[in-house]
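Technical annex B. To support the medicinal chemistry partners, we prepared a structural model of the target in complex with heme C, based solely on the information shown next.
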Amino acid sequence: MSSVFWHASSMTGARVLAQAGLMKWQAVLPILLLCACDGSPSGSDPTSIGSAEHPAIVAFWDAFHASDYAAIDGVIDGISAARALSPDDPDLEFFSAHAHLWRLAEWARAPERPEASQIAALREAVTGFRRAAQLRPDDARVPCWLGLLELQTGRQFADPELIAQGIANLEYTTAAFPEFGHFCEILAYWDQPRDSADFAKAVEAGWKSIDVCLEAPIDRNDPNVGPYLDQATQQGPRSVCWNGGAAPHNEEGYWLVMGDLFTRAGEAALARRMYNNAKARDSYLGWQFKGLLEDRLQRLDERMAAFTDTDTENDPELLPGNAGCVLCHAR
Ligand code: HEC
């Protein structure tokens, strides 16, 4: 089964536990519980967070927006050097975690690297987001990224405590910042068994993720985004619903995810509508992954059959292992 942000098919739980020292991570769990449970959720405005003008962060964005994955090691070195000089800088910590996450999530772009460096990236990403959660307590998105990593790692190694921690963090984001959090919930549950309550949660999160972004709930029989395009905004919590500076093809990537979700759910007409929603805006024409989406549309019946038969080994991939981030973030 493919996980969302990282793919670890060749790892065995016991071996990785030993190598990655997951037991040690668990020693710091109470810190995160604070983050997940402290304070009452309030609306969050991501645009008000931090300045991203440090050269090491600029270098991250240059590489990320250009989908220049080959630059990732240099980007990480630059951020690490800057962190050594400013150890508690919230932005450096935040982008360090993301750089490691990018490295991990698109691992398929450089498959020749040793397994041990994948484990190192996983550790860096998790510990980085844990530090970012402490240093950027008002950024309600951080528990989402952290929670997804914890949940997937916990599942991979059958670690109930880590799973519970991940879920608590995800629930925090959903309560504090639903426009962002419902999307995180899709990624948390969409690869779970199709007949499970967890998968039903992913589908419901998909619907909610649309509704919280619009001024009125969408028609669940025909969720056409066309009439709502002019509600796009760059201000406030709903800015994360639309294309913007950080994620110039967020809408296209989002609808691809929704198409995949409803394909896996066995809902052909809804899946087709979701994929076609990606084409609603002209920015689709300049999106480098439109071939990927067209292919999913053309092979919808075939992909749905593979998802819905009893053999889970033949399930198609959900987020592509070579574009899980740049899908939305590349220019
Ligand atoms: C479905 C589209 C989508 C995918 C896939 C995606 N992101 Fe994002 N990302 C967003 C959106 C939307 C935001 C919020 C932008 C905002 O807050 O203004 C965001 C925010 C971010 C930010 C913070 C930007 C800032 O300055 O606050 C970083 C860094 C980031 N994503 C990295 C990643 C990485 C790494 C991956 C892959 C693991 C990834 N993203 C996958 C859409 C996406």
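Notes passed to the chemistry partners:
The chain has one domain: 19-329.
Residues 115-135 form the longest helix (21 residues).
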